[in-house]
Automatic annotation (TrEMBL):
Residues 10-126, 169-283 form the VOC domain. CDD domains: VOC_BsCatE_like_C. Transmembrane segments: none annotated. Pfam families: Glyoxalase. Keywords: Metal-binding. This is VOC domain-containing protein. It comes from Amphibacillus xylanus (strain ATCC 51415 / DSM 6626 / JCM 7361 / LMG 17667 / NBRC 15112 / Ep01). The lineage of its organism: Bacteria, Bacillati, Bacillota, Bacilli, Bacillales. It comes from the Bacteria. InterPro entries: Glyas_Bleomycin-R_OHBP_Dase (IPR029068), Glyas_Fos-R_dOase_dom (IPR004360), Glyoxalase_1_CS (IPR018146), VOC_core (IPR037523). One of its GO terms (molecular function) is lactoylglutathione lyase activity.
Amino acid sequence: MGFHQKPSTFVSHVRLKVENLERSLAYYQEIIGFDILERTSTTVELTADGKTSILSLEQPKGVKPKKPRTTGMYHFALLLPTKKDLADFVMHLAKNDVQVAAGDHLVSEALYIKDPDGNDIEIYVDRDPNVWKWSNGEVAMTTDPVNFQELLTHQVPGESWQGLPKDTIMGHIHLYVAELDKTEQFYVEGLGFEVVNRFGGQALFLSTAKYHHHIAVNTWNGVGAPRPEENSAGMDYYRLIYNDEAAVKATIANLEKIGATITQENDRIMTSDPAGNRIQLSY
């Protein structure tokens, strides 16, 4: 399918600012099941396969708690390889008394939990793309109850959650924004994504290669929602992977045409959407 492989453009990594690194690290290891790839006194790179970091944590100096009703990250989403993995994770959460929400989105089945800083995390599995329903360029999605009775039939007796499977990837990211018109222009004309679902004038779902969404944006925190404080806990940035250097250069040119700002931070090429959500452009 190649939704999260080149030549598709996809989200590969999310970096979070946290209030307490040790508290967050314990959560992401014990509840989510990440392993540590690298760490310093203020940062941790987390991995599922022991080779690639798909989530990193940083405790900045003077970090402040997240405030509600701002732009920023709604949730990041970890895509599990199989339905059995999701079933095992359900039982793992139950054993650890973790509060969970859930949704059947037609294209996928998902669980939702919160980390210690209030960041929302989606853990999901995709349905076979052959059963996704498309009409006039839009994919059908909704939020129905998850059939847990059916889901748990995918468990194997004697087997249980052993941490994130090594094939777990960053499936998508969902963001709060302040408005949709300039946001759509930024993601479509600037970054090269396609709108694949419009939700009631309040949200857009965007992808490449006809995935159900690599990125979603919404105004559910209010049109004109303010940006988070600079040192607020929450998302620092997310990383997009393009096919090659030429694709990144073309994207930079497209962003400059619509007035977006490009900056260089160490070896990172960075831009920001109209709501201030920071994005690293890579390949």
